[in-house]
Amino acid sequence: MEVLPTIPTASVDLVVTDPPYILSAGSSGHQAGKIGTWADMMNAAYWYSAWYSQVYRVLKPTGSFWTFCNWRSLAVVQKGLFDAGMGMASLLVWNKKQPGPGGNNGLRPYYELVALSSKENFKIHNRSTGDIWERQWQSHHGETEHPAEKPVDFVARIINVCELSENAVVLDPFMGSGTTGVATMECGFDFIGIEQDSKWFSVASTRIKSAQAQGARVLVRNPTKRALDAGDSPAQLALSTPEHLPTAGADSTPALRQ
Ligand SMILES: C[S@@+](CC[C@H](N)C(=O)[O-])C[C@H]1O[C@@H](n2cnc3c(N)ncnc32)[C@H](O)[C@@H]1O
Questions:
Q1: 54, 89, 115, 207: least buried by Cβ within 10 Å?
Q2: What's the rounded Cα separation, in Å, for the pair 3 and 25?
Q3: 13-190+199-217: CATH, from 3.40.630.30, 3.40.50.150, 3.40.50.11270, 3.40.47.10
Q4: What is the CB < 6 Å shell around ligand 1?
């Protein structure tokens, strides 16, 4: 919530993100650490709606917002979206073709979800696109050790479904190992990424630069110089393309900084 407010209003074409589901942050001490009380979930929705509001603000009228979630966090996402005045246009089901862990009293989940919230002038590139996508997923078979790494081609498919202009800017406020950034480079657009963990920021930067070197573009800006000067570490950091984004008073630099 430090970096998002520095991004100018209506400057971003697409937000694709995979935030912490924070379902284990509840006060109930649920033994599986997976889900708290309804009140805990509504508290989580309060935090979600705070950054959703920022997402809504930075998106252009042609923009859209895709956020990963699962069946447990869906209520939180829906409340957060409606509280932020966004609503949900679609719910994409990702059939992972491999079940996650089940319990004694529930079914093993084969799917993850991506909630789509679109602004008034957003257009789907191919209107026959359906809402169930299959993509085999296996734990610990990603490019990095990030426990929540998503497949690059799955995110690239989301990007390609959106009708984007040539200089479109894609934002991921929780970039983890940088999957959205890599997919954005592969699709030939510009990228802003935010990640609070310095280890994953570094992994993401390396991956995205490598994808960029293979033909796409990324320039770098660190809008958290103020926070870093104040000694906060690791602060949120961002990759961006300043030629397409007014800097809103932020520091510009030609190299990655932490
Ligand atoms: C679910 S992971 C994203 C994984 C990513 N999709 C990938 O493929 O690697 C969420 C990430 O958000 C980061 N994060 C959590 N809270 C954050 C915050 N307030 N600001 C920025 N990043 C945050 C975590 O460090 C974590 O890496």
A1: 89
A2: 23
A3: 3.40.50.150
A4: 18-20, 146, 148-150, 174, 176-177, 179, 194-197, 200, 236
